[in-house]
Specification:
The chain is α/β, with parallel strands linked by helices and about 450 residues long. It has 15 helices and 12 strands. It folds into 3 domains: about 110 residues, 2-Layer Sandwich (Gyrase A, domain 2); about 140 residues, Up-down Bundle (Four Helix Bundle (Hemerythrin (Met), subunit A)); about 160 residues, Rossmann fold, CATH 3.40.50.300. The strands form 2 sheets. A 6-stranded mixed sheet has the order 3-4-5-2-1-6. A 6-stranded mixed sheet has the order 8-9-7-10-11-12, sandwiched between helices. Helix 4 runs antiparallel to helix 5, helix 6 packs antiparallel against helix 7 and helix 7 runs antiparallel to helix 13. The chain is flat.
Length: about 450
């Protein structure tokens, strides 16, 4: 990392202010060339910025952060200029003329990781914090940025190292005056650790759902009231509502915030038998989206008598919600059969009418479900797929270690389990993994 990088750290477009960041060994020279002097460290100073050709750029607040006490661990600087496009373009052009290059996405944070300012889990939290749309996402990312996730993995790793020391003592010093059961003494520690790893894996999906959103599918027959419910939950006209069956042909996704958590609500095509190609594709997509959802709202027209409720029954899973719509009308025989099927499947039933603000009752029940699924006293041990993969590998290795008869083989499995956990903080991550992690960052961070 001998080159110097720069990038705007604020979004493009007209704004009151814009921030341009610089990092690398040539930062001091760039500040001196543009501002005429280098300010005192970590103190905002007003400076007139001048391009290499002598043209004025702006009067800007200039900050100087000498390494290693900076975000990246290198010499860094920030220019806080007026947010006009012409000003930012002039500053970026001037920096490029002086030798620094435009940074790649995530390159500032990658340098912070490579210089030991952040571990890999904390670096991922930076991206999550930037992308946070809800209070829950922000809290989870802040805990991870503060080292909460890394501390949990480090504690498990230390427990593995202690067990490894016991096993290696039995292997390396067989003739020493050691207790006969020295290797067996590692078993209780490994058993307890395996239980903790299995608990973390069982909870792994919660972190993903906090980050990406709790997925809820509205399913049911055509004209059951799904689109009306979607509009009521979204509190806007997100979907077209007509009396014509099959109006919704594709999946309509609407993001909501329920109980402080991001929720992705999907209105799907009405499920029925059809030979019309486009509608059949809509039904297929509805089935696929519902299968991958965290919760399904089965919307049933309790007044209908055409038996259409049966087509969506196979998409429902135990624990889902059944919304019996048109409660203001007399329930039909088919409606009673749908109710019985919902009870048999163990569904919670909500009797509502879209004409009487039934969406409010559904929203309240849905919010309770989301909070119950995602809230907990502590944050999950896995917020990304790679964390869950490392947990899975570590648990598998510990299981193998407990099954081994020879302490040499058990020690090797424990050693590999520790390496799997080390990958979360980035101690042993290959370059390809780093490329994948930082590729999702925005330029300037």
């Amino acid at each position: 990392m001998t080159d110097t990088i720069f990038a705007p750290a604020t979004a493009p477009g007209r704004a009151a202010l814009a921030v341009v960041r610089v990092s690398g060994p040539g930062t001091r020279a760039a500040v001196l060339a543009l501002a005429g002097a280098v300010p005192a460290p970590r103190r905002a100073s007003l400076r007139r910025l001048t391009a290499p050709d002598g043209g004025g750029i702006d009067e800007a607040l200039t900050l100087w952060f000498p390494g290693p006490a900076s975000y990246t661990g290198e010499d860094c600087a920030e220019f806080h200029v007026h947010g006009g496009l012409a000003v930012v373009d002039a500053l970026v052009t001037a920096l490029a003329d002086l030798g620094p290059r435009l940074a790649q996405p995530g390159e500032f944070t990658r340098r912070a990781f490579q210089n030991g300012r952040l571990d890999l889990a904390q670096a991922e939290a930076v991206a999550d914090l930037i992308d946070a749309e809800t209070a829950a996402q922000s809290r989870q990312a802040l805990d991870q940025l503060g080292g909460g996730l890394s501390r949990r993995y480090d504690a498990w790793r230390e427990a593995l190292i202690e067990s490894l020391a016991v096993l290696e003592a039995a292997v390396d010093f067989p003739d020493e005056d050691l207790p006969q059961d020295v290797a067996a003494r590692a078993r209780p520690h490994l058993t307890r650790l395996l239980s903790e790893l299995h608990g973390a894996l069982a909870d792994a999906d919660r972190g993903r759902r906090v980050r990406e959103g709790f997925r809820v599918a509205l399913i049911g027959a055509p004209n059951a009231g799904k689109s009306s419910l979607l509009n009521g939950l979204a509190r806007r006209d997100a979907a077209i509502v007509t009396a014509t069956p099959g109006t919704t042909r594709d999946v309509i996704e609407v993001p909501l915030v329920l109980g402080g958590y991001k929720t992705l609500l999907a209105d799907t095509a009405g499920v029925r038998e059809t030979e019309e190609a486009i509608e059949a594709e809509g039904v297929r997509r509805a089935q696929a989206w519902a299968a991958g959802a965290d919760l399904r709202l089965w919307v049933v027209d309790g007044h209908a008598s055409d038996g259409s409720w049966r087509f969506a029954r196979d998409m429902v899973q135990p624990g889902d919600l059944c919304v019996m719509n048109k409660a203001d009308l007399l329930e039909s025989l088919d409606g009673g059969r749908a109710r019985a099927a919902a009870l048999e499947l163990g569904l919670e039933i909500l009797d509502v009418s879209m004409k009487a603000d039934g969406a409010a009752a559904v929203r309240s029940a849905l919010e309770a479900r989301v909070v119950a699924a995602l809230a907990a006293s502590e944050f999950p041990a896995a917020t990304r797929l790679r964390h869950a993969e490392s947990l899975t590998e570590a648990a598998t290795r510990v299981e193998r270690a407990l099954a081994q008869v020879e302490p040499e083989l058990a020690a090797e499995d424990v050693r590999l389990a520790a390496r799997a956990l080390e990958r979360v903080s980035g101690r042993v991550d290959p370059e390809a993994v780093l490329d994948r992690v930082f590729a999702s960052f925005c330029i300037g961070k």
